[in-house]
Amino acid sequence: MSNRITITRRIVQTVCFVLLLYGAFIWPAHLETGLPRIPGGAPRTTLYEKGRILWVSGKESVVDLYIPALACRFVARGGLLKSCIVHFFSENFTWRTSFRLMLPHILALTIMCVLLGRLWCGWVCPMGAMMDAMTWLRRLTGRGRLQVGEDQQRFLFNTRHLLLWGSLAVSVLIAFPVFGQGVNDSLFLIYCQFCPARLLYPPFGGVNPCWSDTTNTISSFLTGVGWAMFALFFLGFAIPRFWCRICAIGALVGYFNRGALLTIEKEPGKCSSCGTCRRNCPVDVTRVYSDRRAGVVTDPECQLCLTCLEDCPEPGALELRLLGRRIVRS
Amino acid sequence: MSSPAPAELVAWFRDEVTTPRRAAELAEWPGKVIGTYCNFVPEELILALGAVPVRLCAGDLDAIPDGEALLPREVCSVVRSSAGTLQRGGGLAGRADLLVIPTPCDAKKKLGAVVEHLKPVHVLELPPRKDSPAARAFWAEQVRGLLAALERLTGRRLRRRALHGAIALVNRREEAFRRLLRLRQADPPALSGEDFLFVTQASFTADAAAWAEHTEALCAVLEARPARPANGRRVLLTGAPLIWPNHKVVQLLEQAGAAVVADELCSGTQRLYQPVALREVSMRALLDAVAEKAMLPSTCPCFVEGGDRLNRIVDLAREAHVAGVVYHSQRLCPLFEIEAMLVQKELRARAIPLLTLSTDFSREDSGQLRTRIDAFLEMLGDGRA
Ligand code: SF4
Ligand code: SF4
Ligand code: SF4
Ligand code: SF4
Ligand code: SF4
Predict the structure, then answer these.
(1) How far is CA A301 from CA A158, A284, B78, B162, in A?
(2) Is there a single domain that holds both residue A108 and residue A237?
């Protein structure tokens, strides 16, 4: 059986990993994209001071571009790209950035999402690549994965949508401001505070992230949550792409998946119901198998890794299409 | 150096099916031989334990009287003949150390009980529906039960690497099979329908690696051969399995000038069709993959779900550009007789001509079948779809 797709994906993931984490070392000078630069807004936070939870060695990213997957502001030197989609909204809601400045970025993000859906997750995100590496290592040892039951899957699904909308709501509340200055500071970029990328990425650039911040009760609590999430990230050894099942970024990009221009389409007449697509999906998507109607079978959870398409034994049963044009088929 | 003629290469498969060659080979062999029925028995498990699987489903008219000592005459020919082959002893059936009998229908459910005084039997239970969460759990359990029985018999423990190797071996066989399938469906077909059945049925008993090698060699020769003029009206054969020596229906069709370029028989195309694509490689994952492969893509009419079978027939008909479909209905088998009606409805809706032949192993109705086949082929016209 051919594994051309998997090999291509590994190469793309590796290149993206290097670019996203070391891009600022490769191109140290700032480059203009033409998109408006968003100035740091009010309330001015103290959390960027050394020792605080959001401390980062970063200065400025090479390019002021936000992308859907995990490009992260906590990459050493500010990274190649500005940050992820959740950070973009959290920060700019809190800063009350003018809509005029945000709009071009929102448009760019929307185009990226509408065009490629969660291909970002399957092919670009460095955290996804790290989890794939964990899975690969586990398989080398011949150990099995933990199964995620339907109830657990539903729980995780609800959790990440709660995290997404909860975090965005907090960002808006800070802006009004509903809380006092100290609380505001400590709740700033609340999703970043427990996103594993905040702790994971800086070491790749030789920077020590802030492991603990005990300035007040809130920061101590969020430090704890951050640790817990960091630990959960390593559950990726037992469950393929475990963090993706919690990640709010994936949840947000997932909204575009059904309507994206990049689609997985099925020809049910060719499908032999062998179940391979369901059994081999790293994030346990069942729709590709169970949907018996012709047409798009991309699920909000699907990361377009194309494992199903590659492993499907029936020629032409599954196809990847962009704007209706076939790119690759099973 | 000229390459061998296809007929010489097919002879190896034909001999495997029609002569006692394999029985003689295995008579000397010290290991365990596992007799299986249907396609539901995961051969990977047997191979991984160093045993040899042989599918014993029988098509022998002469064995039926012996079968009638054990079973009433209201049971279908396949099961009476299978029981008769065991009753007579000798051959591969006599050599088997254990029989693994799935339960697709009432007759096969009880086959174990009527032959267990002859041979040790392991009954492999099938769920009525092949894909509900409960059915999957039940089937996974059944496959593990079979594994335990095989481990007891062989005195070996299944090793993960051995199972992985067996899956790779069977995948190689399946890959060669699909290659042959393409040749056979080509226009003109590179192989007659009956020869294709010989090649497939040789895999019932042959050593898996040897079968794969011979099939690869056959494919290479057929692929290199210049295309010959098309002959005969292209038809798809579906319905109950044809098992040597009961090739009556396919023989009559080809004698009448039809080219059986596709089939959906469990003794034909469905036999080796499905490969196993692995990602997870733990023991549990391998067992689950093998279990799924043995059941999920099955088009056997024994399941509540019938859609996959209709789907497959329609897809094959389109893919192989056939002019019509011939349905072989097994007399006394309610499953195939009922599905004949469903297939008829589906094909009529799609305006695909269908001929239903209800018969058994006896040769008495040959003349009458031939008349109906001739009329059907005539109705199809020149047969170009
Ligand atoms: S869902 Fe997974 S792949 Fe997608 S952004 Fe989140 S961590 Fe990355
Ligand atoms: S820490 Fe997470 S949420 Fe924050 S910018 Fe980095 S990737 Fe985005
Ligand atoms: S459904 Fe297919 S493409 Fe989507 S995540 Fe699963 S295996 Fe990958
Ligand atoms: S892997 Fe392909 S043939 Fe098998 S169930 Fe999925 S879509 Fe159908
Ligand atoms: S049709 Fe079904 S029950 Fe009959 S021999 Fe084939 S697999 Fe077994």
Answers:
(1) 12, 9, 47, 35
(2) yes
Whether residues A210 and A318 share a domain: the answer is: no
A84 lines ligand 2 (CB under 6 A): yes
Which of A85, A79, A39, A269 lies closest to B310, judged by CA?
A: A269
Q: A210, A242, A260 — which closes off a domain?
A: A260
Q: Does B314 touch chain A (CB under 8 A)?
A: yes
Is A136's Cβ below 8 Å from some Cβ in B?
Answer: no
Phi-psi region of A51 (alpha: psi -120 to 50; beta: other; left: phi over 0): left
Give the pLDDT confidence of B54-65 residue by residue, as tens digits: 999 999 999 999
Q: Distance from the CA of A122 to the center of ligand 1, in angstroms?
A: 8
Dihedral of the alpha carbons of A58, A64, A65, A70, in degrees to the nearest 10: 10
Residue with CA closest to ligand 2 atom 4: A192
| Beta carbons within 10 angstroms of residue A35's beta carbon | 17
Judge if pTM exceeds 0.90: yes
- Chain A CB contacts of B280 under 8 Å are 139, 144-145, 280
Query: Is the distance from the beta carbon of residue A307 to the nearest atom of ligand 3 less than 6 Å?
Result: yes
Q: What's the domain count of chain A?
A: 2
A119 Cβ below 6 A of ligand 3: no
pLDDT in tens, B208-264: 999 999 999 999 999 998 877 777 899 999 999 999 999 999 999 999 999 999 999
Nearest to A272 among B280, B284, B308 (CB): B308
Q: Which of A260, A294, A318 is the last residue of a domain?
A: A260
Bridge-based pairing state of the strands B98-102 and B121-124: parallel
